[in-house]
Amino acid sequence: MALLEIKNADISYGSNLIVKDFSLTMEEGSICSIVGESGSGKTTVIRAVLGLLAGGGAVTKGDILFDGHSLLSKTAEEWRKLRGTEISMIFQDSGAMMNPTRKIGSSYVEYIRTHEKDISKQDAWNKAVRMLERMRLPSGDNIMRSYPFQLSGGMRQRVGIAMGMTYEPRLLLADEPTSALDVTTQAQIIRQFMDLKDEYGTSIIIVTHNLGVAAYMSDDLIVMKDGVIEDHGNRDYILHQSDNPYTKMLLEAVPSLGGVRYV
Amino acid sequence: MFNEDEMILEARHVTRRFPASGGRSLLACNDVNLKMYKGKTLGLVGESGCGKSTFMRFLVSLDKPTEGEILYHGRDITRLKGEELRQNRQNIQMVFQDPSGSFNPKMRVRDIICEPLMNYNRIKASEKDKVAREFLRMVDLPEEFADRYPHNMSGGQRQRVAIARAIALEPEIIVMDEATCALDVSVQKTIIELIVGLQKKKNITIGFIAHDLGLIQSFAHQIAVMYLGNIVEVLPGDEIDKNARHPYTQALLGAIFDLNMDFTKKIESIESEAPSPLDVPPGCPFQDRCDCKSDRCCKDHPKLIELEPGHQVACHKYDRP
């Protein structure tokens, strides 16, 4: 059985139909990326998977199945159990997700104690530090005592990944996780995502506009345009075989070393 | 490869220290020496916080270096004052990363494009509409956009208006601070094509800040790599993929996700982060992240040495006495 299955989903905000007829099947332990220009609906799709559609958004047609069960009929209580433990999400800037007036430790301990009712504060703290260190953040204790703004962009993103991976979810949704980072930090974070898949068998859906990153990471690529799947296939197909004009246009636009020179 | 007669701007020993708490100082630019040539593009590459924007801000006189001088046609522009400074601003203009932040949201595109011209009394108010339409055509936007407000346009269109405003005064140099990094790749490509086209037509010198080496090599004539306030390598734009020597430049190249790369290979990246510019280690700034560090790197600060014409590198590996 597929881990995640989106069946012909339509997603609307109010009366505006944003995503039309979106289908996707994902096996356990695979990485899928959704690429497209801004406004093409890629973020809307992954927000729908986590039931986090903003501002009255809803799936109006089709179904989303996780592990064979529909996600659309879940109650608030069931969602709380699912989020963070089975499915979790990493945002473009993890710093913006955390309360700026609280230290990382305070947010992280609260996060753990929401999921595990009977864990003591000290145990939760230790668990968080262990997790940070596993995500290659040296001196986890120090980080727990820092405010989000005291960390660099790459470190904040690692904290976000550590939080998301605390309960070793089976599905990780990443919304432009590296677009705000430098190329060197981006390479570090992408490598970490690949390690997550190898170590924990986590499936990952990554939304990105960087086709290079998408091609490097994923088994499957989905190209979206104006809320519709424009092209879909494995890496080899998208990069070399597809004759979809939009895919080709996107590929040509990626600056490449030793590629086109205008001068 | 560059004709020294065509050099129009030279930065000499430019250093900038910002005062920090506890009597310390933050070294944003350390002894930067760069040259810009007529009609050529200088690409400045580095991680965030390495001082590349700080340096480019000196060119447009938004800030002054603590030490050093910047010679524009032989005249030091860091010491200009008053009317002289105001007149000099016509020669060097800037395009910012986020155009919406640099426009007045209450001004129409017509007024945005013509404001610099009005400031220097180059046109009369009655000519504004005609001139604005002319510049909109030049950046491939419909003429009707003259009546729009910035919020009624997409990011790429706004960036085109920002470029129109920058070329309105016919400056000799335009500084672009990550002008395309907020845009989609497809839009980015068209903006680069526009910039290159305008450069050829008007013989403009461009200083372009970027952190994507793949992008910068597609249109820069010379590339300077900056690390922690220091220029570590300067080389011709077409040689970056074959001839980069400094370990940091090579690390930047290794971190690029390219569509033609070998996908089975593990991506290479330097693991650590750049040290804080508040306490730069003595010796080579890159020592802590370098694979080929020697004892000398901890003691001596490497100087830029010329390997071949147009290619300089600051690394002890290539500095054999």
Quaternary status of these chains? heterodimer
Total domain modules of chain B: 1
Number of helices of chain A: 11
Low-confidence stretches of chain B: none
CATH class of chain B: Alpha Beta
CATH topology of chain B: Rossmann fold
Mean pLDDT of chain A: 90
CATH evolutionary superfamily of chain B: P-loop containing nucleotide triphosphate hydrolases
Overall description:
The complex is a heterodimer of chains A (263) and B (321). Chain A is α/β, with parallel strands linked by helices and 263 residues long. Chain A has helices at residues 42-49, 76-82, 94-97, 104-115, 121-134, 140-144, 153-165, 183-200, 211-217, 235-241, 245-253, and strands at residues 4-13, 16-26, 31-36, 57-66, 69-70, 87-90, 171-175, 203-208, 220-225, 228-234. In chain A, strands 6-7-8-3-9-10 form a 6-stranded mixed beta sheet, with helices on both faces. In chain A, α4 (104-115) crosses α5 and α5 packs across α7 (153-165). The longest helix of chain A is centred in the last third of the chain and has 18 residues, at 183-200. Chain A is globular. The relative contact order of chain A is 0.16. Chain B is an alpha/beta fold. Chain B has one domain (4-91, 171-313): P-loop containing nucleotide triphosphate hydrolases (Rossmann fold), CATH 3.40.50. Chain B is 29% helix and 23% strand. Chain B has 11 helices and 12 strands. An 8-stranded mixed beta sheet of chain B has the order 6-7-8-3-9-10-12-11, sandwiched between helices. In chain B, a hairpin with a 2-residue loop joins β9 (222-227) and β10. The longest helix of chain B is centred in the middle third of the chain and has 18 residues, at 185-202. Chain B starts with 6 loop residues before the first strand and ends in an 8-residue tail after the last strand. The model of chain B has no long low-confidence stretch (mean pLDDT 90). At the A-B interface, α7, α8, α9 and α11 of A face α7, α8, α9 and α10 of B.
